[in-house]
Design a protein that fits this description.
The protein has 248 residues and is an alpha+beta fold. It has helices at 84-94, 99-104, 107-111, 115-131, 156-162, 166-173, 192-198, 202-209, and strands at 4-8, 20-26, 30-35, 37-40, 43-47, 56-64, 71-79, 223-228, 231-236, 241-247. It is elongated.
Length: 248
């Protein structure tokens, strides 16, 4: 999800300015309807939806004009594929609270990937996390909520902060258990907050310690989602397009 899709119109489809185009993606359990932005008379832009599973869906380009019926201009198929970011997000989501798995992730820290690779990893995994269907009871600290803050343990928040993953840290902070993870020490006595300070991640430290810290600038061009029952509406600020998602 959140990738840019470009639609090229044929000569006969280039019509007056009062015609509004939108795309409808129909999957097995979810349907998405996205508005579009006109780049020029022959090209449209929109954002790909974050789908709930990997499958091939039907996509229809529709045209709407006041006082006229909705017209289906073209139809095609669109494939959602499972990539490494999706696999990584699923792995991290399922290993929340699993000490063996979380300790295993620490080997990534020893390799110290370049800043550009970290930024790419942060963006892709955080976006994949946002599109995962997390169980209602999912918690950053794992399934066992009886553990007290005094028990040293590794958390998903330690993982995100150790690698300097700003977007993923922001996402985890909004989830159940996210704030509680900030005061938990690992076996070395480090909290996510002290890790950020020790590593010189100033933006991360600010994000974790300021009471009313705003979302990172890196999210500013991405989408904001509002949920209501079986529906959600997403606004992508960069392109100023909207997406309505409904369970079919």
């Amino acid at each position: 999800g959140d990738s840019i899709i470009t639609v090229q119109l044929t000569e006969e489809d280039k019509v007056e300015d009062d015609v509004v185009f939108y795309l409808v993606f129909t999957g097995s359990t979810v349907q998405h309807c996205t508005s579009t932005r006109k780049i020029n008379p022959g090209s449209l832009e929109t954002i790909s939806p974050g789908h709930d599973c990997c499958e091939t869906v039907k996509v229809a380009l529709c045209a709407s004009r006041e006082g006229h019926p909705v017209l289906v201009v073209a139809e095609d198929s669109f494939q959602f594929v499972q990539d490494e970011a999706y696999d990584a997000a699923q792995f991290l989501a399922t290993c929340a609270g699993n000490q063996q798995a979380l300790n295993f992730t620490r080997f990534l820290d020893r390799s110290r990937p370049p800043a550009a690779d970290v930024d790419f990893l942060d963006e892709k995994v955080a976006l994949a996390f946002r599109h995962l269907k997390l169980p209602a009871e999912w918690n950053v600290l794992g399934a066992d909520q009886n553990l007290t803050e005094n028990i040293p343990r590794e958390t998903l928040m330690h993982f995100a902060v150790r690698l300097g993953l700003l977007r993923l840290t922001w996402f985890l902070l909004q989830q159940p258990g996210g704030r509680g993870a900030l005061s938990i020490h690992n076996n070395e006595g480090a909290t996510p907050v002290s890790l950020a300070l020790e590593r010189g991640y100033q933006k991360l430290h600010q994000l974790l310690t300021e009471e009313e810290a705003r979302e990172p600038d890196s999210w500013s061009t991405l989408s904001h989602t509002v949920h209501s029952g079986d529906y959600s509406v997403k606004h992508h600020r960069g392109l100023d397009v909207y997406m309505l998602t409904a369970e079919a």
